[in-house]
Design brief:
two-stranded antiparallel ribbon; Sugar ABC transporter permease; MetI-like fold; about 325 residues; transport; 2 domains; flat
Amino acid sequence: MEPKILPSLQSGSSLAVSAKKRKRRNADQLMSIVFILPSILAIGVFVYGFIAWSGYVSLTNWNSLVPDLSFAGFKNYLFLFKDFRFQADLRNTLFFTVFFIIAVLVMGLMLAVFLDQKIRGEGLFRNIFFFPMALSFVVTGVIWQWLLNPATGVNLYLKKLGLDSLWYTSVKIIPGVEWGKIQFGVPVAVIAVVIAAAWQMTGFSVAMYLAGLRAIPEEIREAARMDGASELQIYRKIIFPIVAPITVSVIIIMAHISLKIFDLIYAMTGPGANFVTDVPGVYMFETTFRGNYYANGAAISIIMLVTVAVFIVPYLISSRKGES
């Protein structure tokens, strides 16, 4: 007969095992905290700490090389919203964001559908479409500055056709309705920046849409074809609704990029004549580091942060709810 193990010994051994597991788990948690603590401290100081400092400086009178941290309230913000240049920046950012997002979405979806047809040489086309993403906005700005130069670039062909070759440097606003201190409308010169930005970032939307299209089972398309649906109806009523969440993601990411754009504008056009291509990022840089108006520059940066947060925070909240 096999010897019977007393219940007290069984419970004691199980308690010892659970205690060892608990101790190992606590040690793992402690090591995890130790590893991520430097990152948490760095983010807390160099991200959220500097955001808080910028917010504090924006409420002071520090608009010279000599620090003046006396409280000024919202004086700097009121000055900006009455300022001609900042009003022009808001107008330019609005139209740049709208046209940039539309261009990236339309071209990205069209190219993704083109690649989804499993064409010959798909790998080559992918590399061509994705290559601009490997460049920085500074490089893109310099390249398109050369291409759109009224004296040497592709505008020479427009001149030969009798068209306006100076649109790249135009100060024209369409339709140019008076609004505050500025003319409200589409600055013609902004279109050039939209072309350059869309050229670089379309590859991102192509990758997103192509991944979504390739994730759709072929059986769904075959079933729709058997029911008599045309290819146009399949895309319009089945495929496009399925990839709608990807469209939302692309819009959020592109809006985040366009609202804080700086390097492309600075390298390609600068503020432009009459500030027709100026944006808050360029204004903040010149105000802070060239004009030494630190409180005004901090106020511009906080306004940029708020505008980006308006797009990002609701998206993160909805994504978190979707995951839970």
